[in-house]
Amino acid sequence: MKRIIFAIAFTAFSSMGLFAQKVKSLPQPDMNMKVSITEAMQKRRSYRDYQTKPVTDQQISNLLWAACGINNPERGLLTIPTATNAQDIKAYLCTAKGVSLYDPKANTLTEVTDKDIRPILCERQSAMAVAPAFILLVSDLSKFRGNAEHYGAMDAGYASQNICLMCAALGLKTVPRAMMNYDEVKKALSLPENIALELNHPIGY
After folding, report:
1. Which residues are CB-contacts of 198 (< 8 A; sequence separation ≥ 6)?
2. Cβ distance 189 to 123 under 8 Å?
3. Per the CB 3.0–4.6 Å rule, which of 102, 128, 155, 160 could disulfide with 122?
4. Residue 94 in 3-state DSSP?
């Protein structure tokens, strides 16, 4: 009986907003970087060994903006092309403190869980779990009428390349990875069936 009462109370409090999610504002992306696109392409490499040295909020802001941020506020256009302009790609920031969803319009991070999912993102490549941050790319397949899996993977590739180039410009290291424990990651983030896990990027030095 007590459990039933608690469950009802929890639902009521949640609907009243008493269990509000943590929202963190990010600094605006730095639009005055001096690295040219050709220089970033020359510096781009795939790295699999990382230090524990943390990355800054400014670096995270630039990386998330590169992945799927807004570059034309008037028209709501993104830094990446997406099939039929579906804007299906979402980016999660994963750190030791938990996982947060990036909101490109508000330039904020909203906490999804306080669990550290870096080990299940790394799976067999466990040494990578020391990277201070991971960016997880997912696709909302419900935004497509057909060929959803194909389009979602394609759009994630655009975001992944932007992350690689921004890391090179910022002096950071990364590697695009499809390997992860898909079932455990979806469970940890309570993702519905229409959300497809696409790629993850360890970020660090």
Report:
1. 89, 137, 138, 139, 152, 153, 156, 178
2. no
3. 128
4. strand
The answer to whether 10 and 3 are in contact (CB under 8 A) is no
Quick check: is 2 in a domain?
no
| Average pLDDT rounded to a whole number, residues 157-162 | 98
| Residues of the domain holding 83 | 21-203
Q: What are phi and psi of 49, to 5 degrees?
A: -120, 130
Q: Please report, for the domain that includes residue 115, its CATH number.
A: 3.40.109.10
Whole-prediction pTM: 0.90
Q: Is residue 150 assigned to a domain?
A: yes
What is the number of domains present in the chain? 1
Q: What three-state secondary structure class fits 45?
A: coil
CA-CA distances (angstroms) from residue 86 to 153, 167, 199?
Answer: 13, 26, 18
Dihedral sign of CA atoms 151, 82, 178, 165 in order: positive
